[in-house]
Amino acid sequence: MREDKREGIVEESKVFKPGAEFKARALVREEKVYEEAARDRIGFWGQAAERLDWFKPWDKVLEWDPPFAQWYVGGKLNASYNCLDRHLTSWRRNKAAIIFEGEYGDSRVLTYQDLYREVNQFANVLKSLGVNKGDRVTIYLPMIPEAAIAMLACARIGAPHSVVFGGFSAEALRDRLIDAKAKVLITSDGSFRRGSVVPLKENADSALAGSDSVEHVVVVQRTGTEVNMKEGRDLWYHEQMQKAALECQAEEMDAEDMLFILYTSGTTGKPKGVVHTTGGYMVGVSTTHEWIFDLKEEDVYWCTADVGWITGHSYIVYGPLANGATVLMYEGTPDYPAKDRFWEIIEKYRVTILYTAPTAIRTFMKWGPSYPESHDLSSLRLLGSVGEPINPEAWMWYYKHIGQERCPIVDTWWQTETGMIMMTPLPALTALKPGSCTVPFPGVKVEVVDHDGRPVAKGSDGYLVVREPWPAMLRTVYGDQNRYVNTYWSNWPGIYFTGDGARWDEDGYFWVLGRVDDVINVSGHRIGTAEVESALVDHPSVAEAACIGKSHEVKGQAVAAFVTLKEGVDVGNGLMDELKAHVAKKIGALARPDDIFFTPELPKTRSGKIMRRLLRDIAEGRALGDTTTLADASVVQALRDK
Ligand code: PRX
């Protein structure tokens, strides 16, 4: 342990400034990057793109026909080539690319050479199954190296992947398979979760019952669980890999060719397939990853997200591997076999950078500091936060007990749609205010605006928007261009609406306040109220349902549901639990409501719109706001009396 705890950071009246030692060693330490990028945004992103290996350089950095952007027009490259091949010509080929820690303590290290070989082989497997450039492949896997291998193999042959989080239910998987018209599904026999096995293959089998596009299922053996293998359709990963040739040339992709689809919740019951393309996305994620995490060759970088979310795509797979980083990948949960698992892992691998979520930090707070204190965390030098606003109390706890008052914290704001981090400190340049994601990344123009799309004055609240296109921006919603235009670009022409509310403070710092649309952020994961509502009304006893996000000490927000039952249905004893289980079955455990309130009627406006604001007040036991537009005031009275 170092003597001077303050070398990384210095506190000055509630603002935390980069320490001299951190600054001296940092990658980006010149203030002028901000001004230069602001003066010539296109030039900035043009220069940034030179960090990648291109088969053919681009003719033009940006073609902007709002709301449609093309970045690096005419450029040709391959994402897998950039994450693998180009590292093989230097000493990096023997560097650890992925250090895998399994839930039960098994460990596996893949060097860049190893990862290259496995990705090439699996790309050949996919080809042998008839997967061609442009065909979609769905990946439903646990947090094991094969998830990254599968993604990179798809990228190698130009087949867009759609990764579905392993915690999603069979039905959620089915919807996503159908929407993407996937040709191949990659899954595993199961996934370990706190010592038991989640039956992924079984879920996959029931999902497949309703989708007819999938020709083959490749099954990775992880748990050793017995599974049904359908003759002619299902194949074992390890058997196919044995037969596969070692080399598969990376397909030459256009900068604007689709790299992947990732489904996210919106304000309707149907998840949106957010489409990301190759060139801009790779430039965005690799630049931000290197600059924000101050990446050094010797770092052991650990992002605790699941590959099923955008954080896993951008900051476990594509960004770090394009940068030749050593990425730690952990399969399990923070409390298995004990509540010190994260700290044990950090000590075991001497992790230097930790990127996690506020909900995890609040959980650790609840468990108390004795768990991190029982391990040597002195290897850590930088901490990150993502997924939801971090409350200042959690920030301070993270700073003190994990960073040991030594590590800067980068609170990174971004979205599935933005692809890359948009607001964040640069650790050697930005003074930190606990709870604020600070300022936009160089070359990114974010603003807080009022109803009319006009920037608010410093010190005011408003809607968070992105003013100018950025390289890793989504290009469309898969198969639904109208939805892309209407959801993101219709409030104010040419301006991207994030769905978040924010405050722009006196110093020009941004404070994200949370969603202003009907999206709930549960433990950093987005859930549309409409999705939970449609899962509830799918139950035979339910007539109508309305869901809201309710503040929750650990999860940030939890789902609360107001349910009206069909005529003659009795609440009885088990109905509440049954409905909660029904939602978990339809969507996944993350959407399970914490509370269900039964009510004979829902509070609605005279035009029939459910008054969610009132429901929020009721769920949180607050004084009721304005009820003058309510059609029938007695409904609220009845709800309050419960
Ligand atoms: O509300 C914001 C919140 O998460 C939303 C995006 O969710 P998703 O697409 O699932 O991506 C999560 C991981 C990037 C945003 O609209 N959010 C994300 N990061 C932060 C945040 N809110 C406040 N501070 C953050 N750092």
Structure notes:
With 642 residues, this protein is an alpha/beta fold. The chain contains 20 helices and 32 strands. The strands form nine sheets. It has an eight-stranded mixed beta sheet, sandwiched between helices. A seven-stranded mixed beta sheet has the order 7-6-19-18-20-21-22, with helices on both faces. It has a four-stranded antiparallel beta sheet with strand order 23-24-26-27. Strand 16 and strand 17 form a beta hairpin. The protein is globular. The mean pLDDT is 95. Adenosine-5'-monophosphate-propyl ester binds next to helix 11, strand 22, strand 26 and strand 27. The site of adenosine-5'-monophosphate-propyl ester has 22 residues, from helix 11, strand 22, strand 26 and strand 27.
Bound molecules: adenosine-5'-monophosphate-propyl ester
CATH homologous superfamily caption of the largest domain: ANL, N-terminal domain
What strand line-up does the widest sheet have? 14-13-10-8-9-16-17-25
**Overall tally of structural domains:** 2
Q: How can the largest sheet be summarized?
A: 8 strands, mixed
- The CATH architecture of the largest domain is 3-Layer(aba) Sandwich
Uncertain segments: none
Shape: globular
Radius of gyration, CA atoms, in whole angstroms: 24 Å
- Compute the separation of the termini in Å: 56 Å
User: CATH topology of the largest domain, anyone?
Assistant: Rossmann fold
Strand content: 15-25%
Summarize model confidence as the mean pLDDT. 95
* Overall number of strands: 32
Determine the number of helices (DSSP H or I, runs of at least 4 residues): 20
Helix content: 25-40%
Query: Assembly state here?
Result: single chain
Question: Structural class, judged by helices and strands?
Answer: alpha/beta
Please give the CATH class of the largest domain: Alpha Beta
